[in-house]
Amino acid sequence: MSINVKILLVFCISLIVGLIISPVIINLLKKLKAQQTILHYVEKHSTKSGTPTMGGVIFILSSILTCAFFLWYDSVYAWLALAVMFAFGVLGFLDDFIKIHFHQNEGLKPYQKIIGQTAIAFIVSLFIYFRVGSNLDFFGWTFDISWGIIPFSVFVFLAVVNSVNLTDGLDGLAGGVSLSYLLFFGLIVMLIGNAEMDMLALSCFALCGGIFAFLASNTFPAKIFMGDTGSLAIGGYIACLALFSNKALLIPIMGIMFVLSSLSDIIQVLHFKRTRKRVFLMAPLHHHFEQKGVHENRIVTIYILVTSLLSAVCLCLDIAF
């Protein structure tokens, strides 16, 4: 079976598994009263209070279950990427659980999140240094940063994981942008053309199938939110995919909407601390547009289209060079 056929099959099976388990998980979370508490100052989202969260379990399970039947047992990069996704998912699950148990919107303390994220990131960064290598590829140009790959990788993990988390604010936004990003990045990884990267790409498309299934219940109006369980898991996987393929320098371009979410939040916080005034009506950026009267469906569509366009450009340039 060719890798192209295998990837298509994996995507479809993960999608089907996700569609099958989605209603089961939604009903289970409702029975367990695992419901999202909406921040009091997000008035436009007050009607969403009580929506089940932790929906990231859907695509985490569907992708791992599918890969269990299609990945080679010795596909180290692919299995580690899935393991890292699961580890960040567990961290996000703890955050969501605390929010639900205490009926508030703040879970783990910021320092607890950073410690957990940094610990996972550092362990994987050591693997990258000793096994993957210290090269970074950017459209044919290769840079060797030696031991600098360790702090660089930790930074990539922290930046990506938290950026995806910040983007998770509208129905279908983080899921839709992530799906677009991963579909194109998976193709880029597949074009590298070796067995290890083929298996990594296969795991990527398994995750895409799971996210696609999740979006069937997450698009407006959402029946379930991915929660930190899902956003941290996706962020961890995205970082692995880029770092294991030496393509991390593509993240700011293909993931520009993730970058804008983080930058807008950072700018808002720093400017407010200095002047007690706000740059945006509300941060991250998608909430600013929402406060300006743009419907969330339009915002989600634009975010996905921009991600798809820039990702397609990167794919074409990667093929060319």
Describe this structure in a few short sentences.
With 321 residues, the chain is mainly alpha-helical.
Give a written overview of the molecule.
This protein is mainly alpha-helical and 321 residues long. The chain has one domain. The chain contains twelve helices and two strands, in the order ααααββαααααααα. The protein has a two-stranded antiparallel sheet. A hairpin with a 2-residue loop joins strand 1 and strand 2. It is globular. The two termini are 28 Å apart.
Largest sheet at a glance?
A: 2 strands, antiparallel
Label the overall shape.
globular
Q: What fraction strand?
A: under 5%
User: What strand line-up does the widest sheet have?
Assistant: 1-2
- State Rg: 19 Å
Mean pLDDT: 93
Number of helical regions: 12
Low-confidence stretches: none
Could you tell me how far the N terminus lies from the C terminus, measured between alpha carbons in angstroms?
28 Å
Structural class: mainly alpha
Strand tally: 2
Order of helices and strands: HHHHEEHHHHHHHH
Q: How helix-rich are the residues, as a percent range?
A: over 70%
How many structural domains in the coordinates?
1
Tell me the layout of helices and strands:
Elements: H1 3-31, H2 56-70, H3 76-101, H4 110-132, E1 135-138, E2 141-144, H5 149-167, H6 173-190, H7 195-218, H8 227-244, H9 251-254, H10 256-275, H11 285-291, H12 296-320
